[in-house]
Amino acid sequence: MDDYIAISLLNDFIFCPYSIYLHNVYMESDESQYHAAPQTMGRIAHKTVDEKKTTNGKGDLVSVSVCSDEFRIFGKIDLYRYSSKTLIERKYQLKNIFRGQIYQLWAQYYCLCEMGMKVEKLAFYEISTNKMIPVPLPGANDREEFVSFLCMVRKYNPSSDININTNKCRHCIYCNLCDKNRIENVYI
């Protein structure tokens, strides 16, 4: 399982591949060194799912570990509703849906399908607005794009140069710990 990728890292990789390296460096340290308000809100939002305290229908799957040997990915789903065959990813707030978030949902979808579950719908649930946002199921071209993306993640070398995007860097939780930039974090 050395080359299996955690589903939770897919969006982070698109945001900044180097942030995954920094996450691994600092993961044993005090989170207060680098966590900011968005991560704290996200953790709180996920708490009800992680502790399986969310309201759900009888027999729905909540916070279940999933894995795909075909794609060599693993992670957890937030919610699968048997009644509507819908896979739901909960987010506290969604001003935009980023490609990495779509990849995370697709990854969960592919895992469930490989595990024999029938998934007919995908959606994000925005907790702050109590709004369900449907997402189309991935097609053949989406699958190719996803496989290509996973190859890129596996080939990434943290010693390579990164494109510094000052707006992204300012909002990165590792900004002040990063050796690739000299930008101040907006969360200070």
UniProtKB/TrEMBL annotation:
Chain's gene name: cas4
Pfam family, one: Cas_Cas4
Taxon lineage: Bacteria, Pseudomonadati, Bacteroidota, Bacteroidia, Bacteroidales
Protein name (database record): Type V CRISPR-associated protein Cas4
Domain DUF83: 8-178
